[in-house]
Protein backbone atom coordinates (compact mmCIF):
# COMPACT_ATOMS: atom_id res chain seq x y z
CA UNK A 1 0.00 0.00 0.00
CA UNK A 2 2.76 2.37 1.01
CA UNK A 3 4.57 1.93 -2.31
CA UNK A 4 1.40 2.36 -4.33
CA UNK A 5 0.63 5.61 -2.53
CA UNK A 6 4.12 7.08 -3.04
CA UNK A 7 3.94 6.13 -6.71
CA UNK A 8 0.70 8.10 -7.08
CA UNK A 9 2.29 11.01 -5.31
CA UNK A 10 5.24 10.90 -7.70
CA UNK A 11 2.89 10.69 -10.69
CA UNK A 12 0.92 13.67 -9.44
CA UNK A 13 4.09 15.69 -9.02
CA UNK A 14 5.22 14.69 -12.52
CA UNK A 15 1.91 15.87 -14.01
CA UNK A 16 2.12 19.15 -12.17
CA UNK A 17 5.64 19.70 -13.54
CA UNK A 18 4.64 18.57 -17.04
CA UNK A 19 1.76 21.02 -17.16
CA UNK A 20 3.87 23.83 -15.82
CA UNK A 21 1.55 24.13 -12.89
CA UNK A 22 4.22 24.43 -10.25
CA UNK A 23 3.01 27.88 -9.36
CA UNK A 24 -0.50 28.18 -10.81
CA UNK A 25 -1.93 30.33 -8.07
CA UNK A 26 -0.61 32.57 -5.41
CA UNK A 27 -2.08 32.48 -1.96
CA UNK A 28 -3.07 35.58 -0.16
CA UNK A 29 -4.28 35.67 3.36
CA UNK A 30 -7.45 37.53 4.03
CA UNK A 31 -9.28 37.28 7.30
CA UNK A 32 -6.94 34.54 8.38
CA UNK A 33 -8.04 32.15 5.58
CA UNK A 34 -5.68 31.44 2.66
CA UNK A 35 -7.44 31.58 -0.73
CA UNK A 36 -6.45 31.44 -4.35
CA UNK A 37 -6.15 34.61 -6.39
CA UNK A 38 -6.54 34.37 -10.17
CA UNK A 39 -3.40 34.19 -12.27
CA UNK A 40 -2.34 37.50 -13.67
CA UNK A 41 -1.25 35.87 -16.91
CA UNK A 42 -2.87 34.45 -20.01
CA UNK A 43 -1.97 32.82 -23.32
CA UNK A 44 -2.19 34.12 -26.89
CA UNK A 45 -2.40 31.64 -29.71
CA UNK A 46 -3.33 31.53 -33.37
CA UNK A 47 -2.65 29.88 -36.70
CA UNK A 48 -1.18 31.56 -39.75
CA UNK A 49 -2.90 30.37 -42.91
CA UNK A 50 -1.81 31.15 -46.44
CA UNK A 51 -4.50 33.03 -48.38
CA UNK A 52 -4.13 32.51 -52.11
CA UNK A 53 -2.55 30.07 -54.53
CA UNK A 54 0.39 28.23 -52.99
CA UNK A 55 3.71 29.69 -54.11
CA UNK A 56 6.26 27.47 -55.79
CA UNK A 57 9.17 27.31 -53.35
CA UNK A 58 12.17 29.24 -54.66
CA UNK A 59 15.08 26.87 -55.27
CA UNK A 60 18.35 28.39 -54.02
CA UNK A 61 20.62 25.44 -54.83
CA UNK A 62 19.68 22.49 -57.04
CA UNK A 63 20.51 19.05 -55.74
CA UNK A 64 23.74 17.81 -57.30
CA UNK A 65 24.69 21.20 -58.81
CA UNK A 66 28.47 20.89 -59.21
CA UNK A 67 28.89 24.59 -59.98
CA UNK A 68 28.18 25.85 -56.46
CA UNK A 69 30.91 26.43 -53.91
CA UNK A 70 31.63 23.36 -51.73
CA UNK A 71 29.24 21.35 -53.91
CA UNK A 72 29.75 18.04 -52.09
CA UNK A 73 28.16 19.60 -49.01
CA UNK A 74 26.09 22.50 -50.33
CA UNK A 75 24.26 20.69 -53.14
CA UNK A 76 23.97 17.42 -51.25
CA UNK A 77 20.26 18.20 -51.20
CA UNK A 78 17.99 20.81 -52.71
CA UNK A 79 17.99 24.08 -50.80
CA UNK A 80 14.86 26.18 -50.96
CA UNK A 81 14.10 29.64 -49.70
CA UNK A 82 12.33 28.76 -46.44
CA UNK A 83 10.38 31.99 -46.65
CA UNK A 84 8.49 30.55 -49.61
CA UNK A 85 7.84 27.23 -47.90
CA UNK A 86 4.12 26.95 -47.15
CA UNK A 87 2.66 23.67 -45.90
CA UNK A 88 0.76 22.34 -48.95
CA UNK A 89 -1.64 20.24 -46.84
CA UNK A 90 -2.55 22.62 -44.03
CA UNK A 91 -1.63 25.88 -45.81
CA UNK A 92 0.15 26.74 -42.56
CA UNK A 93 2.80 29.46 -42.72
CA UNK A 94 5.91 28.40 -40.78
CA UNK A 95 8.94 30.44 -39.63
CA UNK A 96 6.94 33.58 -38.79
CA UNK A 97 7.66 35.63 -35.67
CA UNK A 98 4.80 36.37 -33.26
CA UNK A 99 5.81 38.66 -30.41
CA UNK A 100 4.58 41.47 -28.22
CA UNK A 101 5.64 44.99 -29.02
CA UNK A 102 6.42 46.92 -25.84
CA UNK A 103 4.62 44.49 -23.52
CA UNK A 104 2.60 46.02 -20.72
CA UNK A 105 3.77 44.35 -17.56
CA UNK A 106 6.28 41.59 -17.01
CA UNK A 107 6.46 38.00 -15.85
CA UNK A 108 9.67 37.36 -13.91
CA UNK A 109 8.65 33.72 -13.26
CA UNK A 110 8.25 32.99 -16.98
CA UNK A 111 11.58 34.70 -17.68
CA UNK A 112 13.29 32.57 -15.02
CA UNK A 113 11.69 29.44 -16.45
CA UNK A 114 12.80 30.27 -19.99
CA UNK A 115 16.39 30.93 -18.91
CA UNK A 116 16.44 27.63 -17.00
CA UNK A 117 14.88 25.58 -19.81
CA UNK A 118 16.61 27.23 -22.77
CA UNK A 119 19.77 29.02 -21.66
CA UNK A 120 21.15 28.74 -25.19
CA UNK A 121 19.58 29.43 -28.58
CA UNK A 122 21.38 27.25 -31.12
CA UNK A 123 21.51 28.09 -34.81
CA UNK A 124 23.20 25.33 -36.78
CA UNK A 125 24.66 25.45 -40.25
CA UNK A 126 23.98 22.20 -42.01
CA UNK A 127 24.28 21.48 -45.73
CA UNK A 128 24.82 25.20 -46.15
CA UNK A 129 21.60 26.44 -44.62
CA UNK A 130 20.65 27.81 -41.21
CA UNK A 131 18.65 25.56 -38.94
CA UNK A 132 16.31 26.81 -37.65
CA UNK A 133 15.58 29.39 -40.32
CA UNK A 134 13.98 31.70 -37.75
CA UNK A 135 14.65 31.85 -34.00
CA UNK A 136 13.69 34.04 -31.06
CA UNK A 137 16.56 35.19 -28.87
CA UNK A 138 15.90 36.74 -25.45
CA UNK A 139 18.51 38.97 -23.81
CA UNK A 140 20.21 36.89 -21.13
CA UNK A 141 20.32 33.77 -23.28
CA UNK A 142 23.43 32.70 -25.13
CA UNK A 143 23.36 32.60 -28.91
CA UNK A 144 25.34 29.65 -30.19
CA UNK A 145 26.28 29.74 -33.85
CA UNK A 146 27.55 26.36 -34.84
CA UNK A 147 28.39 24.38 -37.93
CA UNK A 148 27.73 20.72 -38.61
CA UNK A 149 29.42 21.05 -42.01
CA UNK A 150 32.97 19.87 -42.82
CA UNK A 151 33.72 23.19 -44.58
CA UNK A 152 34.24 26.83 -43.66
CA UNK A 153 31.34 29.20 -43.20
CA UNK A 154 31.47 32.75 -42.04
CA UNK A 155 28.64 34.21 -40.01
CA UNK A 156 27.90 37.86 -40.37
CA UNK A 157 25.10 40.08 -39.16
CA UNK A 158 24.56 43.79 -38.66
CA UNK A 159 21.81 44.47 -36.15
CA UNK A 160 20.45 47.96 -35.54
CA UNK A 161 21.02 48.20 -31.77
CA UNK A 162 23.73 45.62 -31.10
CA UNK A 163 27.30 45.44 -32.36
CA UNK A 164 27.93 43.96 -35.80
CA UNK A 165 29.32 40.43 -35.90
CA UNK A 166 31.52 38.69 -38.45
CA UNK A 167 33.41 35.50 -37.75
CA UNK A 168 34.76 32.49 -39.65
CA UNK A 169 33.23 29.25 -38.49
CA UNK A 170 35.65 26.40 -39.22
CA UNK A 171 34.46 22.82 -39.94
CA UNK A 172 32.23 21.68 -37.08
CA UNK A 173 33.03 24.94 -35.29
CA UNK A 174 30.98 26.78 -32.72
CA UNK A 175 30.92 30.20 -31.18
CA UNK A 176 28.77 31.59 -28.38
CA UNK A 177 27.83 35.20 -27.96
CA UNK A 178 25.44 37.34 -25.98
CA UNK A 179 23.55 40.34 -27.21
CA UNK A 180 22.75 43.04 -24.71
CA UNK A 181 20.05 45.07 -26.41
CA UNK A 182 16.67 44.19 -27.88
CA UNK A 183 16.11 44.84 -31.57
CA UNK A 184 13.14 46.50 -33.23
CA UNK A 185 13.43 44.27 -36.29
CA UNK A 186 14.61 40.73 -37.04
CA UNK A 187 18.34 40.36 -37.72
CA UNK A 188 19.58 38.47 -40.76
CA UNK A 189 22.46 35.98 -40.66
CA UNK A 190 24.54 35.85 -43.82
CA UNK A 191 27.53 33.90 -45.10
CA UNK A 192 29.87 35.47 -47.64
CA UNK A 193 31.25 32.12 -48.77
CA UNK A 194 27.78 30.82 -49.69
CA UNK A 195 25.81 33.93 -50.64
CA UNK A 196 22.39 32.21 -50.78
CA UNK A 197 22.56 31.44 -47.06
CA UNK A 198 20.07 33.44 -45.03
CA UNK A 199 18.68 32.96 -41.54
CA UNK A 200 16.91 35.20 -39.06
CA UNK A 201 16.67 35.84 -35.34
CA UNK A 202 14.54 38.25 -33.37
CA UNK A 203 16.29 39.67 -30.30
CA UNK A 204 13.88 40.66 -27.54
CA UNK A 205 14.16 41.69 -23.90
CA UNK A 206 11.04 39.76 -22.86
CA UNK A 207 9.84 36.18 -23.25
CA UNK A 208 6.52 36.91 -24.99
CA UNK A 209 7.33 35.50 -28.41
CA UNK A 210 7.13 32.41 -30.57
CA UNK A 211 7.95 31.19 -34.08
CA UNK A 212 5.13 29.55 -36.04
CA UNK A 213 5.50 25.80 -36.56
CA UNK A 214 5.06 23.78 -39.77
CA UNK A 215 1.28 24.13 -39.53
CA UNK A 216 1.41 27.87 -38.84
CA UNK A 217 0.59 27.53 -35.13
CA UNK A 218 2.06 29.86 -32.56
CA UNK A 219 1.49 30.19 -28.83
CA UNK A 220 2.73 32.81 -26.40
CA UNK A 221 2.40 31.87 -22.75
CA UNK A 222 2.62 33.77 -19.48
CA UNK A 223 1.43 37.05 -20.99
CA UNK A 224 0.45 39.73 -18.45
CA UNK A 225 -3.31 40.29 -18.56
CA UNK A 226 -4.60 43.42 -20.26
CA UNK A 227 -4.42 44.96 -23.72
CA UNK A 228 -1.25 43.91 -25.49
CA UNK A 229 0.09 44.70 -28.95
CA UNK A 230 0.98 41.69 -31.05
CA UNK A 231 3.29 41.77 -34.04
CA UNK A 232 3.31 38.94 -36.53
CA UNK A 233 5.93 39.14 -39.22
CA UNK A 234 7.74 37.13 -41.83
CA UNK A 235 11.31 36.34 -40.78
CA UNK A 236 12.50 39.26 -42.90
CA UNK A 237 10.33 41.68 -40.94
CA UNK A 238 7.45 42.10 -43.41
CA UNK A 239 4.41 42.63 -41.20
CA UNK A 240 1.52 40.20 -41.40
CA UNK A 241 -0.54 41.81 -38.62
CA UNK A 242 -2.83 44.76 -38.97
CA UNK A 243 -1.31 47.91 -37.49
CA UNK A 244 2.13 46.92 -38.74
CA UNK A 245 4.90 48.17 -36.35
CA UNK A 246 2.34 49.29 -33.75
CA UNK A 247 1.00 45.76 -33.52
CA UNK A 248 -2.58 44.50 -33.37
CA UNK A 249 -4.44 44.88 -30.10
CA UNK A 250 -5.10 41.64 -28.26
CA UNK A 251 -7.06 41.35 -25.02
CA UNK A 252 -5.38 38.97 -22.62
CA UNK A 253 -7.41 37.69 -19.68
CA UNK A 254 -5.93 36.22 -16.53
CA UNK A 255 -5.86 32.44 -16.62
CA UNK A 256 -7.42 32.28 -20.10
CA UNK A 257 -6.33 31.50 -23.63
CA UNK A 258 -7.01 34.19 -26.21
CA UNK A 259 -7.34 32.20 -29.42
CA UNK A 260 -7.03 34.46 -32.45
CA UNK A 261 -8.09 31.54 -34.66
CA UNK A 262 -6.95 31.46 -38.27
CA UNK A 263 -5.05 34.54 -39.34
CA UNK A 264 -4.97 34.96 -43.09
CA UNK A 265 -1.62 35.69 -44.68
CA UNK A 266 -2.26 37.43 -48.02
CA UNK A 267 -0.19 35.97 -50.84
CA UNK A 268 0.66 39.53 -51.92
CA UNK A 269 2.86 39.98 -48.83
CA UNK A 270 5.45 37.52 -50.05
CA UNK A 271 7.70 39.35 -52.45
CU1 LIG B 1 28.51 29.34 -45.61
Mean pLDDT: 89
Taken from the alpha-carbon principal axes, the silhouette is globular
| Level-2 CATH architecture | Sandwich
Instruction: Report, as a whole number of angstroms, the end-to-end distance.
Output: 66 Å
CATH topology: Immunoglobulin-like
Helix content: 10-25%
**Stretches with pLDDT under 50, minimum 5 residues:** 1-38
- CATH class equals Mainly Beta
Q: What's the count of strands?
A: 20
Determine Rg (CA atoms, Å).
Answer: 22 Å
Structural class: mainly beta
Q: Tell me the series of helices and strands, N- to C-terminal.
A: HEEEEHEEHEEEEEEEEEEEEEE
Proportion in β-strands: 35-45%
Let me know the largest β-sheet: 4 strands, antiparallel
What would you give as the CATH superfamily?
A: Cupredoxins -  blue copper proteins
Number of domains: 1
The molecules bound to the chains, other than polymers, are: copper (II) ion
Keywords: Signal
InterPro entries: CarboxyPept-like_regulatory (IPR008969), Cupredoxin (IPR008972)
Signal peptide: 1-28
Provide structural commentary.
This protein has a single domain, classed as Immunoglobulin-like (Sandwich). The chain has a four-stranded antiparallel β-sheet, with no helix packed on it. It is mostly beta strands and 271 residues long. It starts with a helix and ends in a 5-residue tail after the last strand. The chain has three helices and 20 strands. Helices cover 11% and strands 41% of the residues. The protein has helices at residues 2-18, 71-74, 108-117; strands spanning 26-30, 33-37, 41-51, 59-61, 79-80, 97-100, 120-126, 129-131, 134-138, 142-147, 153-157, 165-169, 174-177, 187-190, 198-204, 209-211, 217-224, 226-233, 248-252, 257-266. The radius of gyration is 22 Å and the shape is globular. The longest helix has 17 residues, at 2-18. The structure holds copper (II) ion. Copper (II) ion is lined by residues 128, 153, 191, 193-194, 197.
